[in-house]
Design goal:
About 20% of the residues lie in helices and about 25% in strands. It is of the alpha/beta class and about 270 residues long. The longest helix is centred in the C-terminal third of the chain and has 19 residues. The protein is globular and about 55 Å long.
Length: about 270
């Protein structure tokens, strides 16, 4: 059974990880030029490099539905540069998981597959999807809602080591991004991590750089460009996160409920 995961960033990769480990065939789709920050744990890198491995799962770029089917037949995850989903729909997935995390619905419909799951805010269970999985850190992280929506986006990232907004690196202007630090590097407060057209991006805290944009990408003013982890555990930069695994577990639950209980039609009666 094929499941299509829209998006291939770090949370979507956690979703694919759980589904793949549970025996499903997985096809993912993302932008032709992905903007993932935590690139060492994002399967979207397969679009750029042809293939990538996160922990012990491998994704391989596919240029067509036929190639995607061949990749999955070899036991790998197929990655399409197919944000609109025109190619992915040809594979007739049994379930669709929208894990783009755009904070709004970018086109997913409840009629896209027998089971349609929305991840995070921007979806309403029973309206544009069958179930919604919570992405907000806290007591409800990973919970499955069959009515209503996930908690609204606050614009403030989760608290890690006592820091929230301070963890983020943001572009000071529109321009072309160039990093001077790499994922896994330890950075100090006040240290330059990247430049945008010659203007520096400086870390506000000490920690391990667990995410940064690739060189040469066009950014807008204020765009998230990096993530500093104050826990200073370099190994965290190369493993699927606790949050991604929790969300992935919620998606797996939602998919299995839909497939083993005759779908979600009964919820709307």
């Amino acid at each position: 059974m094929i499941i299509w995961v829209r998006g291939a960033g770090d949370i979507a990769t956690g979703v694919a990880f759980r589904l793949y480990k549970s025996g499903f065939s997985v096809v993912m789709s993302d932008l032709p030029q992905p903007t993932s920050i935590r690139r060492t744990v994002c399967l979207s890198e397969a679009i750029i490099n042809g293939q990538t491995t996160v922990e012990d799962i491998t994704a391989r770029f596919a240029a067509s539905a036929e190639e995607a089917a061949q990749v999955m037949a070899r036991g790998e995850i197929a990655l399409l540069a197919d944000p609109a989903g025109e190619t992915a729909r040809q594979l007739k997935p049994i379930a669709v998981v929208d894990a783009i995390l755009a904070k709004k619905n970018l086109g997913t419909k409840i009629t896209d597959a027998p089971v349609v799951i929305g991840v995070g805010p921007g979806f309403t269970a029973g309206l544009d999807c069958h179930a919604v999985v919570e992405t907000m850190r806290g007591h409800t992280l990973g919970r499955v809602y069959t009515r209503g929506s996930a908690l609204p986006d606050t614009g403030v990232p989760g608290n890690i080591g006592g820091f929230t907004l301070e963890r983020l690196l943001r572009s000071p202007r529109a321009g072309v991004f160039r990093g001077v630090k790499q994922i896994g590097d330890t950075v100090e407060a006040g240290e330059v991590c990247a430049y945008v057209d010659g203007e520096p991006i400086v870390s506000r805290i000490r920690g391990v750089l667990r995410g940064i944009l690739p060189d040469g990408i066009a950014v807008t003013e204020g765009m998230k460009s990096g993530d500093v982890d104050p826990r200073c555990e370099r190994a965290h930069c190369f493993a699927v996160s606790d949050k991604a695994l929790a969300v992935g577990g919620g998606v797996l639950e939602a998919v299995l409920r839909g497939l083993t209980q005759g779908g979600y039609e009964w919820k709307r009666k």
